[in-house]
Each structure stands twice: as structure tokens, then as C-alpha cells.
């Protein structure tokens, strides 16, 4: 089967109303029709998920949640279980986003969430990324440790085709001018593949998909696709703008 790139739209806590969410989704539906080789995963806030899921959407558009509970079920006020997300038709879950890590999510909790996702048949998108870079390369050790602690102990069969979104925290929520350069992205995605290979085997590394996230916009998407050695994007703020998201999708789709 031909390998497909992935573009994840992480809407975070936006837009403000369901009406606006439907508008954004409508524009994605329109755009998706011209996209041939790329899967689009829309991750709206929970209250908008079901109403959007009920609308028709092209075959290359999927839904994801931005988070799941680390427990399968039980008395956990405010949490949403993987089963609930799956039950209404969600296919993916972002796990371990840096904004959730900042709220206290540890690698250990993230590993539990990954296990829950696999048990529920939700496809996880594991986020990793350093807070800052330093010339001694300590950020690489940091990323390696995140991958190791999040994935070690999970059954190897689950790691086949694992999706990792590399999102350097310092580059998130800014403009394309402050995003990571395509060359640095290339180096880091190679490093991530190497780490996955060392820890879990070359076959797992080859089958893995590495996305880049952090201020991907219309202006830098093309060069990251060309030089960044990525299998797609995780897009935050630009995924809410039809114009921006259209350019990003087209850039991703051109690669194949
Ligand atoms: P950004 O967010 O595209 O707004 O930088 C990316 C993310 O945090 O997932």
C-alpha cells in the first residue's frame, strides 16, 4: 500500500462556538477533495466532536481527540475515556501534547494513555519535543528520554506504524519566521528515527511516521516538506484559517 502523509489539525480550545467550528470544518471538507495522497485528521474540542462527526466528510478526513483519560473507566471527574471517543467514530488521539505535559502529564502517564489507546483501537499521535535547544545537544538526550519512557514496555506489535509528532516547545504558537528551520527539522527527525531503531528495531523505525509541529504556516510548509524529512504536520493555529490550512495541505500533498 502506498504510504500516505498525515496532516493533523489541532484546534486546541478553539474556535469559540459550534457555528464557527462548522464553518472551519466545511472549508476543510472543501479542501480535502483536492487532496489525493494525504490524510487529514481534525482534532476539535470535545463538545464539537460529535456534531462534526455526524456531517458527511470525504474519505481522507478523519477525526481525532486532543487527549484521552489514562484510565479505561471509572470515577474520574472531567475526563473523557478512549472508549467514548472511539464509540462515536473517532479514529485518532493526540497524546502527550506539550500543553498537557505543562499541566503535569508525565512520560509515565503518557505511556499509560498510549496503552489505553492501543487497547481501544484508537491510533495515538505521540508528541515529543524539547523546551529549548542548546549547543551541547542536551535537547537530543531529552527527546530520546521522552521516546524511551513513553514507548518502552508497550508490546512491539503496537509500535508498528507508530506516529510521533516532533514539536519543539519553543517553536509552538509563533509565526513561520520563528519555526524551526527545515534543516534542523531534518536532523531531528533523523535522530528520532535512529532512537526508535535503537530502542525497538530497524523495522519499527522504518515503519514509523514522524510529523513536525510548531508554527507551520503557509509560508514555511513547502520548504519543510521539501527538506525536513517528515511524514506530515501537526498544525495548531494555522489549521483554523482556511487559506493557511489549504496551502499547508497542498504542500504536504505535493510530496507524494
Ligand atoms: P502551532 O501549534 O501550529 O500553533 O504552533 C502546534 C501545536 O501545538 O500542536
From TrEMBL:
Q: Which EC number(s) are documented for this chain?
A: 5.3.1.1
Pathway where it operates: Carbohydrate biosynthesis; gluconeogenesis; Carbohydrate degradation; glycolysis; D-glyceraldehyde 3-phosphate from glycerone phosphate: step 1/1
What Pfam families does this protein map onto? TIM (PF00121)
InterPro entries the UniProt entry points to: Aldolase_TIM, TIM_sf, Triosephosphate_isomerase
* Lineage top rank: taxon: Bacteria
Keyword Cytoplasm applies = yes
Q: Which PROSITE patterns match?
A: TIM_2
According to its UniProt entry, one GO biological process term is: glycolytic process
Top-level class of the enzyme under EC nomenclature = isomerase
Q: Which UniProt keywords apply?
A: Cytoplasm, Gluconeogenesis, Glycolysis, Isomerase
Where is it chiefly localized? cytoplasm
Q: Which reactions does this protein catalyse?
A: D-glyceraldehyde 3-phosphate = dihydroxyacetone phosphate
One GO cellular component, as annotated: cytosol
MF term (GO), any: triose-phosphate isomerase activity
* Cellular localization per UniProt: Cytoplasm
Q: How does it assemble?
A: Homodimer.
Question: Its family?
Answer: Belongs to the triosephosphate isomerase family.
Query: Do you know which PANTHER family this protein is assigned to?
Result: TRIOSEPHOSPHATE ISOMERASE (PTHR21139:SF42)
Q: What is this protein called?
A: Triosephosphate isomerase
Could you tell me which species this protein originates from?
Answer: Candidatus Zambryskibacteria bacterium RIFCSPLOWO2_12_FULL_39_16
Amino acid at each position: 500500500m502506498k504510504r500516505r502523509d498525515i496532516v493533523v489539525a489541532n484546534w486546541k480550545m478553539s474556535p469559540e462556538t459550534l457555528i464557527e467550528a462548522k464553518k472551519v470544518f466545511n472549508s476543510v471538507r472543501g479542501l480535502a477533495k483536492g487532496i489525493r495522497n494525504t490524510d487529514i485528521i481534525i482534532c476539535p474540542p470535545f463538545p464539537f466532536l460529535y456534531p462534526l462527526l455526524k456531517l458527511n466528510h470525504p474519505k481522507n478526513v478523519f477525526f481525532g481527540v486532543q487527549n484521552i483519560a489514562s484510565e479505561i473507566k471509572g470515577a474520574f471527574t472531567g475526563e473523557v475515556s478512549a472508549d467514548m471517543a472511539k464509540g462515536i467514530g473517532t479514529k485518532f488521539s493526540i497524546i502527550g501534547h506539550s500543553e498537557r505535559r505543562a499541566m503535569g502529564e508525565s512520560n509515565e502517564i503518557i505511556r499509560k494513555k498510549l496503552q489505553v489507546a492501543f487497547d481501544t483501537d484508537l491510533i495515538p499521535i505521540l508528541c515529543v519535543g524539547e523546551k529549548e535547544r542548546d549547543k551541547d545537544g542536551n535537547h537530543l538526550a531529552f527527546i530520546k528520554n521522552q521516546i524511551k519512557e513513553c514507548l518502552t514496555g508497550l508490546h512491539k506489535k503496537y509500535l508498528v506504524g507508530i506516529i510521533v509528532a516532533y514539536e519543539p516547545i519553543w517553536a509552538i504558537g509563533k509565526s513561520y519566521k520563528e519555526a524551526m528551520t527545515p534543516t534542523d527539522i531534518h536532523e531531528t527527525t533523523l535522530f528520532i528515527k535512529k532512537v526508535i531503531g535503537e530502542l525497538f528495531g530497524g523495522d519499527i523505525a522504518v515503519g514509523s511516521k514522524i510529523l513536525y509541529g510548531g508554527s507551520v504556516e503557509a509560508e514555511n510548509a513547502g520548504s519543510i516538506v521539501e527538506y525536513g524529512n517528515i511524514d506530515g504536520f501537526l498544525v495548531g493555529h494555522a489549521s483554523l484559517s482556511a487559506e493557511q490550512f489549504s496551502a499547508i495541505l497542498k504542500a504536504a500533498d505535493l510530496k507524494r
